[in-house]
């Protein structure tokens, strides 16, 4: 079973599709591939070698735009694919500063100075 991209986009309330998402490889997450069976190990190895490995100490978080989740169901022997869009947002800052960091310019006409926004 599968869904076409136009069906997925039409079902979303707010879709985030832009060309920059596909400039870098996705972050690969494998679930339930820890079994000792040879065909499960082979599938895990195949998925791992489809994408370059990520050095967690050197990776730039802004370059990770997508996440690919591959889950193996041991009972039905089926693979489930999920492809997510990832957005990095600042945490622990004021609402005004968050808008500035995300390059959204707030209405500052009612403010006398920038410190009121921050």
From TrEMBL:
A single GO BP: rRNA processing
Any Pfam family: Brix
Listed GO MF terms: rRNA binding
Highest taxon of source: Eukaryota
GO cellular component: nucleolus; preribosome, large subunit precursor
Residue ranges occupied by any Brix domain in the UniProt entry: 1-118
Compartment(s) of residence: Nucleus, Nucleolus
PANTHER family listed in its UniProt record: PETER PAN-RELATED, SUPPRESSOR OF SWI4 1 HOMOLOG
Protein name in the entry: SSF1 protein
Organism in which the protein naturally occurs: Alectura lathami
